[in-house]
Amino acid sequence: MANIIVAQTAGFCFGVRIAVDMAKQAGEKLGHAYTNGPIIHNKQVVNYLKSIGVEEMQGYSQLKPGDTVIIRSHGVPPKTERMLKELHVNVLDATCPFVKKVHDKVKQLVEEGYFVVIIGEEGHPEVIGTLGHLEEVDGKGVVVENFEDLVKKVPKRNRIGVVAQTTQSEDFFREAVGYLAENTEELKVFNTICDATSVRQEEVKKIAPEVDVMIIIGGKHSGNTQRLYQISKALNPNTYHIETADELQEQWFENKENIGVSAGASTPDWIIQEVVNKIKEIKGVSHE
Ligand code: F3S
């Protein structure tokens, strides 16, 4: 009898849930709204939202007074918010509270006179927003992605303050803080990494070695899903990354009784449920 273990942490994180719910409500109530970029890295959700009138904004020139724009969970620089106000559009702010916390900490560090080091990916929408908040308070700072950046980009300063992009790797964060501690007189650190990503990874590390086959569900372009897949594949070679139930292949489950399932932070529950139901069908397990 097949045994299917679905990770408790599989699927939407808190911030994505807020953003998707907000977009859904806007579509249902208003019939039309824009998002400033894809609301999440999940084609199925983006297509569903499009079907109820919520679409990605292609440029500010298409906005008319009275339109509604949803700011996605990554947040935006303050000047973007001002621009939207000047265009007289209704703004629905779905910036994740964990991202807002990074903005607050950056402001605090600048007020206290620190040079700010943001540990994150240059050019990532969240980091662009954070840099905008730094600029807003006339702060000075740099973004570091790797060890080389740390050595090359961080100037010699006596007082350095550190924040992280919410989805940064804990390992690099620790390494960077260690390096800065050795090279700075005074260091103030805010660990702003949100735990939504790490708890998913920890659970996959526990489940993958214990099952015969592991299914990871999520957008092919979703970074956090890809990381879950890589972690699982390293622990269990019978790991498969799929976006929807249609991609499941019967031969993956031949003579396999223990099946694990997890999903990235941008995978909705209904897709996870469809996958579980299809696996049950393949294995001849009746649906409850
Ligand atoms: Fe927010 Fe963390 Fe999700 S920052 S959007 S809860 S990955």
TrEMBL record:
<protein>
    <recommendedName>
        <fullName>4-hydroxy-3-methylbut-2-enyl diphosphate reductase</fullName>
        <ecNumber>1.17.7.4</ecNumber>
    </recommendedName>
</protein>
<feature type="binding site">
    <location>
        <position position="74"/>
    </location>
    <ligand>
        <name>dimethylallyl diphosphate</name>
    </ligand>
</feature>
<feature type="binding site">
    <location>
        <position position="224"/>
    </location>
    <ligand>
        <name>isopentenyl diphosphate</name>
    </ligand>
</feature>
<comment type="pathway">
    <text>Isoprenoid biosynthesis; isopentenyl diphosphate biosynthesis via DXP pathway; isopentenyl diphosphate from 1-deoxy-D-xylulose 5-phosphate: step 6/6.</text>
</comment>
<comment type="function">
    <text>Catalyzes the conversion of 1-hydroxy-2-methyl-2-(E)-butenyl 4-diphosphate (HMBPP) into a mixture of isopentenyl diphosphate (IPP) and dimethylallyl diphosphate (DMAPP). Acts in the terminal step of the DOXP/MEP pathway for isoprenoid precursor biosynthesis.</text>
</comment>
<keyword id="KW-0479">Metal-binding</keyword>
<feature type="binding site">
    <location>
        <position position="222"/>
    </location>
    <ligand>
        <name>(2E)-4-hydroxy-3-methylbut-2-enyl diphosphate</name>
    </ligand>
</feature>
<feature type="binding site">
    <location>
        <position position="266"/>
    </location>
    <ligand>
        <name>(2E)-4-hydroxy-3-methylbut-2-enyl diphosphate</name>
    </ligand>
</feature>
<feature type="active site" description="Proton donor">
    <location>
        <position position="126"/>
    </location>
</feature>
<feature type="binding site">
    <location>
        <position position="222"/>
    </location>
    <ligand>
        <name>dimethylallyl diphosphate</name>
    </ligand>
</feature>
<feature type="binding site">
    <location>
        <position position="74"/>
    </location>
    <ligand>
        <name>(2E)-4-hydroxy-3-methylbut-2-enyl diphosphate</name>
    </ligand>
</feature>
<feature type="binding site">
    <location>
        <position position="166"/>
    </location>
    <ligand>
        <name>(2E)-4-hydroxy-3-methylbut-2-enyl diphosphate</name>
    </ligand>
</feature>
<feature type="binding site">
    <location>
        <position position="41"/>
    </location>
    <ligand>
        <name>(2E)-4-hydroxy-3-methylbut-2-enyl diphosphate</name>
    </ligand>
</feature>
<feature type="binding site">
    <location>
        <position position="74"/>
    </location>
    <ligand>
        <name>isopentenyl diphosphate</name>
    </ligand>
</feature>
<keyword id="KW-0414">Isoprene biosynthesis</keyword>
<dbReference type="Pfam" id="PF02401">
    <property type="entry name" value="LYTB"/>
</dbReference>
<feature type="binding site">
    <location>
        <position position="224"/>
    </location>
    <ligand>
        <name>(2E)-4-hydroxy-3-methylbut-2-enyl diphosphate</name>
    </ligand>
</feature>
<comment type="similarity">
    <text>Belongs to the IspH family.</text>
</comment>
<feature type="binding site">
    <location>
        <position position="266"/>
    </location>
    <ligand>
        <name>dimethylallyl diphosphate</name>
    </ligand>
</feature>
<feature type="binding site">
    <location>
        <position position="41"/>
    </location>
    <ligand>
        <name>isopentenyl diphosphate</name>
    </ligand>
</feature>
<keyword id="KW-0004">4Fe-4S</keyword>
<dbReference type="GO" id="GO:0050992">
    <property type="term" value="P:dimethylallyl diphosphate biosynthetic process"/>
</dbReference>
<feature type="binding site">
    <location>
        <position position="124"/>
    </location>
    <ligand>
        <name>dimethylallyl diphosphate</name>
    </ligand>
</feature>
<feature type="binding site">
    <location>
        <position position="96"/>
    </location>
    <ligand>
        <name>[4Fe-4S] cluster</name>
    </ligand>
</feature>
<feature type="binding site">
    <location>
        <position position="13"/>
    </location>
    <ligand>
        <name>[4Fe-4S] cluster</name>
    </ligand>
</feature>
<keyword id="KW-0408">Iron</keyword>
<feature type="binding site">
    <location>
        <position position="222"/>
    </location>
    <ligand>
        <name>isopentenyl diphosphate</name>
    </ligand>
</feature>
<keyword id="KW-0560">Oxidoreductase</keyword>
<dbReference type="GO" id="GO:0016114">
    <property type="term" value="P:terpenoid biosynthetic process"/>
</dbReference>
<feature type="binding site">
    <location>
        <position position="41"/>
    </location>
    <ligand>
        <name>dimethylallyl diphosphate</name>
    </ligand>
</feature>
<feature type="binding site">
    <location>
        <position position="124"/>
    </location>
    <ligand>
        <name>(2E)-4-hydroxy-3-methylbut-2-enyl diphosphate</name>
    </ligand>
</feature>
<comment type="pathway">
    <text>Isoprenoid biosynthesis; dimethylallyl diphosphate biosynthesis; dimethylallyl diphosphate from (2E)-4-hydroxy-3-methylbutenyl diphosphate: step 1/1.</text>
</comment>
<feature type="binding site">
    <location>
        <position position="194"/>
    </location>
    <ligand>
        <name>[4Fe-4S] cluster</name>
    </ligand>
</feature>
<dbReference type="GO" id="GO:0051539">
    <property type="term" value="F:4 iron, 4 sulfur cluster binding"/>
</dbReference>
<feature type="binding site">
    <location>
        <position position="266"/>
    </location>
    <ligand>
        <name>isopentenyl diphosphate</name>
    </ligand>
</feature>
<dbReference type="GO" id="GO:0051745">
    <property type="term" value="F:4-hydroxy-3-methylbut-2-enyl diphosphate reductase activity"/>
</dbReference>
<dbReference type="InterPro" id="IPR003451">
    <property type="entry name" value="LytB/IspH"/>
</dbReference>
<feature type="binding site">
    <location>
        <position position="224"/>
    </location>
    <ligand>
        <name>dimethylallyl diphosphate</name>
    </ligand>
</feature>
<dbReference type="GO" id="GO:0046872">
    <property type="term" value="F:metal ion binding"/>
</dbReference>
<keyword id="KW-0411">Iron-sulfur</keyword>
<feature type="binding site">
    <location>
        <position position="124"/>
    </location>
    <ligand>
        <name>isopentenyl diphosphate</name>
    </ligand>
</feature>
<dbReference type="GO" id="GO:0019288">
    <property type="term" value="P:isopentenyl diphosphate biosynthetic process, methylerythritol 4-phosphate pathway"/>
</dbReference>
